[in-house]
Known about the structure:
Layout: E1 6-10, H1 14-25, E2 29-33, H2 37-45, E3 48-52, E4 57-59, E5 63-64, E6 74-79, H3 86-93, E7 97-105, H4 112-119, E8 124-137, E9 140-153, H5 160-169, E10 175-177, H6 181-202, H7 206-210, H8 213-232, H9 246-249, H10 256-270, H11 277-283, H12 294-304, H13 309-322
Parallel strand pairs: 1-2, 1-6, 2-5, 3-9, 6-7, 7-8, 9-10
Antiparallel strand pairs: 3-4, 8-9
Amino acid sequence: MEKTKRILVVGAGAVGGVTAAILAREHYDIWLVAKYPELAEKISNEGIEVSGYCGDLCMKVPAVARPAELTGKFDYVFMATKADSLINAARETLPFMHEQTRVVSMQNGICEEALASVVGTLRTIGCVVGWGATLVAPGKVEMTSGGEFVIGNWNREKDEKLEEVAGILRYILPTETSDKILSHLYAKLIINSCITTLGAISGLGLGKMLARRYIRDIFIEIIREAMAVADAMDLNVKPYAGKLDYYQFLGSGMMASFKRHLTIRVIGFKYRKLKSSSLQSLERGRKTEIDYFNGYISSKGKEYGVKTPVNGKLTRMVQEIENGMRTISVNSLEEI
């Protein structure tokens, strides 16, 4: 694809920072919306520092604090904001899109329906970010693990534009295209609804949290409810990261319960130092993405007539923490 195509990355956090820096290294005509004037100035003049899995680099990227400061139209827009900021960001960016612009949703959770309501179904591309990154400091990010992207048109089959987006993202990591993007997004949604939400409520790191059997029981019940909703939606959920097959995980038999708990203990040990991103948001006094995690499962359950009491309760708990009506404590999970 011609690298003269104009690309906009909205959000200078972990995922947006890595994306913008690597595409700048590849000499794309790229701009970045960085939210804060001082950060935009720093990125423009000094660059974004990136380290970790992708190697070390520092790339200057033309950056602005708000979309209103942009000029012209962009061919591709990568939305790397938090889920709760997506709608406003999409509205502010809309004047800088043309009819054939493609907008890639890089959020956690399933935000594509909301994005399409602003920019239109034709423009909307769903994306599973299957790799890890963290914001070390403003303008400094680390890619903490490798992985892949999975992308797909929202409620449409693959087309030439989707393949062009895949070609761009392959400069970062391997990228798969799919006609079943919701199935992939839902798979990631489920694991986020377990790990991220339980960590936010308990305040524990993943290792300590999943060492407790009653929390593992809640973990399993989140998945049961989510898969019941998926069945009602006639949605065939893909294995998460090609490894965690939820259908096998919920299988029956004498050893099934033992295998489920063992699988969760292994996850807890492997990622024992992982700290919930939603917990980090709460500690900074910010809102979480709960409405796009367990809240999504709960709302779809209501829509399709499936009871989701655990996901509903967890959603309310996080909202209560956000509103100052509940403290972060592992004791809260005993209520479940």
